[in-house]
Write a structure and sequence with these properties.
Helix content: 25-40%
Distance between the termini: 36 Å
Oligomer: single chain
Structural class: alpha+beta
Strand order of the largest sheet: 5-4-3-2-1-7-6
């Protein structure tokens, strides 16, 4: 049958490595079922951005899940109808998302028309939850509570308020639900954002009905933006860069809403997450981080694809202060992660993190540091080199 006239459009950006420039595209897909139509151009035609529908010649059949590309600058077809990858789901399309489409890493940076904005803002509403330092050990349980209700994690960061009075006054003004004495405790403060339908009101009710005390959350969209801009942007990290190892929750696990469950599982094994933050990696960055596996692991390219297919959660992991030999954290944590080959992990080490949450050799839930000498190096890569330049966009 023919696609309904209602379509959703996004402004997508792609970094062309040869001329070293960002190119923008108009990406349009049918809202339901998940059929795609993509128009590509180095410059957008402004007259298209206000159109809620497209000419009849640009309606396509959805049953075959195909994609078609057209160059707007020449008005010529760039690609005939082609099957979209089965890994691409309707839920993968939202502002701030990274998608891999026909070997191109596209970042959806904005809505392309008012109709899409109106339709998507209802189902893609963002909210923020801030945990007081007293709840730091419950981060995993709180994230799992919200994820299990159908909301997807967008951003996450541990930070500290410090002793700056202006900083404290701003925080106290926003976090009126949290006692001041609790805010000044030595443990990190954690901010997180979620996306989903009517997320502000729904997540607030969820938290109010829970047994957790010491959380703050916005009541309106304007407040949510203020929370995100203050707590989730460029604030100091809580990473120590001492006797630590690096763990990364991969993008597929975020999409599957497993972040909270994995974090809680890590904590139950006696490890401390001393710093945590979401990052969105460009292909070159992901390839650089995984470079040691190039030529060693046959699935290297697929590993890079996974790491830049969406936001990931990077963590600094340490042993508890009471544990002996803190310098052995890399080896000890790696043993709990299990083999990177998930089939082997499930067969022989079923209670390891990969054995419990992995899907296959690429979607194996987490990355962990392999060599003791690389623990601090990998943590520094994220929390020093990247921390000031990468965060999840999408707040308007």
């Amino acid at each position: 049958m023919e696609v309904n006239d209602r379509v959703l459009g996004f402004v997508a950006e792609w970094f062309d490595p040869h001329p070293q420039i960002n190119k923008k595209y108009l990406l349009v897909r049918a809202s339901s079922p998940p059929c795609l139509f993509v128009d590509l151009s180095t410059t957008l035609n402004p007259t298209l951005l206000s159109l809620p529908t497209f000419p009849p010649t640009q309606k396509y059949y959805c049953e075959t899940s195909e994609v078609e590309m057209k160059d707007l600058s020449t008005n010529r077809k760039f690609l005939k109808k082609t099957k979209i990858p089965p890994s691409l789901k309707e839920a993968d399309f939202f502002v701030g998302a990274n998608i891999i489409l026909l070997a191109r890493d596209l970042k959806l940076i904005d809505y392309a028309d008012p109709v899409t904005r109106r339709l998507m803002e209802d189902v893609d509403e963002r909210t923020v939850v801030v945990l007081s330092p007293a709840l730091y050990d419950s981060v995993g349980k709180i994230i799992a509570l919200v994820e299990n209700a159908g909301f997807t994690l967008v951003d996450l960061k541990s930070t500290c308020l410090g002793n700056n009075m202006v900083d404290l006054e701003t925080a106290v003004e926003l976090l009126q639900d949290i006692d001041f004495n609790v805010l000044t405790r030595p443990e990190p403060l954690v901010a997180m954002s979620f996306r989903g339908s009517n997320s502000i009101q729904s997540v607030n009710k969820l938290i109010q009905a829970s047994s957790f005390v010491g959380l703050a959350y916005p009541r309106t969209l304007d407040e949510a933006v203020k929370f995100a801009n203050y707590f989730l942007k460029q604030r100091p990290t809580t990473a120590t860069f001492e006797e630590c190892t690096c763990c990364i929750i991969k993008p597929h696990a975020i999409k599957e809403r497993l972040v909270g469950t994995i974090l809680d599982n890590v904590a139950s094994r006696g490890f401390v997450v001393s710093a945590i933050q979401t990052f969105s990696l460009e292909r070159a960055t992901a390839a650089e981080f995984l470079e040691v596996y190039d030529g060693v692991v046959p699935e290297y390219k697929e590993m890079v694809d996974e790491m830049c297919s969406g936001p990931l959660v990077a963590m600094e992991i340490r042993l508890k202060p009471t544990e002996p030999h803190p310098d052995e954290v890399v080896e000890k944590f790696r043993a709990h992660c299990g083999p990177w080959d998930v089939s082997m992990a499930k067969e022989l080490y079923s209670q390891t993190i990969r054995g419990l949450f992995g899907r296959d050799r690429i979607r194996n839930a987490i990355h962990c540091t392999d060599l003791p000498k690389d623990g601090v190096v990998e943590v520094e890569y994220f929390f020093k080199i990247l921390t000031n330049s990468h965060y999840i966009d999408g707040w308007k």
